[in-house]
Amino acid sequence: MPTKQLIADARQRMHTTVETVRRELSTMRTGRASLAMLDGIRVDYYGTPTPLSQVGSLATPDATLITIQPWDKGSLGAIEKAIQKSDLGLNPSNDGALIRLAIPQLTEDRRRELVKVVHKKLEDGRVAIRNVRRDGHEMLRELLREKEISEDEEHRAQEQLQKVTDKYIADAEAVGQEKERELLEV
To answer: 125, 149, 119, 126: which is closest to 137 by C-alpha?
Structure first.
């Protein structure tokens, strides 16, 4: 039945969108040390942009510190440069064998700015989910025009598609509220 496959496809695409929002929000800096915030950093490792996690061992010994133990001591400078170039606002300290990243507490103004960024990313996610719904509606109308489904089937599928949309928008909002709560926590 074409409508079941269409709904399953829409569900999969919406789920992917929610996971993308979750991943984007996990890289945002809070007042707490998290290795996820370093995911986007690429180190120029012998001329090749390499993810930070592949050039050394990352650890969070406590809630306000991240340590990076490079496997190749010659890459310390490159790692330091990559962190400084990132938009995280962190200042690495290098002792010749280990890089330490102290995670400073966020100011109230910075927290408010980050909450606005969370809202923007969340709205982008909601728009993407609604776009999937719109694509589904268009496909259903096309199936109806081609007489592959009846008007009743189209109506039921539209309702199902709306329920799936509502569920994934609620999931995305829950992810956003969790991140907002994390940011406003002092």
So the answer is: 149
pTM of the entire predicted model: 0.70
Cα gap 110→158, rounded to integer Å: 42
- For 22-42, the pLDDT digits (tens) are 988 887 766 677 777 788 788
Alpha helices in 27-150 (DSSP H): 76-85, 108-145
Domains of the chain: 2-27+107-184 (1.10.132.20), 35-102 (3.30.1360.40)
Contact between 82 and 42 under an 8 Å Cβ cutoff? The reply is yes
Q: Write the pLDDT tens digit of every residue in 72-127.
A: 888 888 888 888 887 777 788 888 888 888 887 778 887 888 888 899 999 999 99
Spacing of C-alpha 121 from chain mean position: 9
CA dist 46 and 22 (Å) reads 32
